[in-house]
Write the structure tokens for this entry.
Amino acid sequence: MLERILRPLGATLAVLALSAIPLAVQAQHPGDLTPRDKTEVFIQHLVKVARLDPTRYRALVLEYEIGSAIGELAHEDADEGNHDACAEHAGLSMADFIQSALREIHPAYADALRLKEEGKTAEAREAARSLAGKADPYLAAHANMLLLEIDFAEAAADKESLERVIALAERIIEKDRLYLIQDHRACELIALAFEKLKKPLHELVQYAILLTDYEGLPPEIEARAKARIASLDDEAGRPLGTVADWMNGVEKLLATEVTAKDPTQEKEVEIVSALDKLIELQEARERKT
């Protein structure tokens, strides 16, 4: 058992440490698309897939074009130091456009958002859950994000519920990034869940993923991520070294035939999940370079 667990983990550590083997990347990753790219894909979806009524379609496209024109004018007129803020405004406007379009096209989604805003979280969760399995990928993705926000708000410090939040956020990142402008929110919620779980190494690596793989972050989120990384640096130590120490600890436990769930098996799970995060960060770095 020891050999089966430690040998592949040791090999992975070596690859990450030396960066000798480039990781495979997709030709067109959702993280490479700008908010404008995603919005234009959404507009094509409205006419080609959703088969929206032409009159409503033209009205929505006109709304988008006017909003984009206003955003571009604001960007041109801005002082040099305010370009980031203008880019953020443009990104939020595009997110608002997709959100408002989905509200108009799908009354059930508008009802789910309204229920959440009114504090009726149980009803909002049921409404969102029924929409998360719909064929329209934009509707399903935004319903999943609504579920994620509700689950995180109610998770408190409970380990099981926080782990469910992380699992849902990971699924959203894996499957739904193309359909979300504010896809960074799922990544941020994973880091916040790790913070509540008191997993500093996981939190540090997750914030590094956020800064690496999500361009055009709102300034306050970027600032928070950098501040948390700075504060966690001493606590988490050097990630690869810390994981290597964990592996040595597990090896010693197994050598003395300590194989119970606590602490051996739980630490093994911790090692594998930390390595997964380090690989995810390395893949993001490879894509950006």
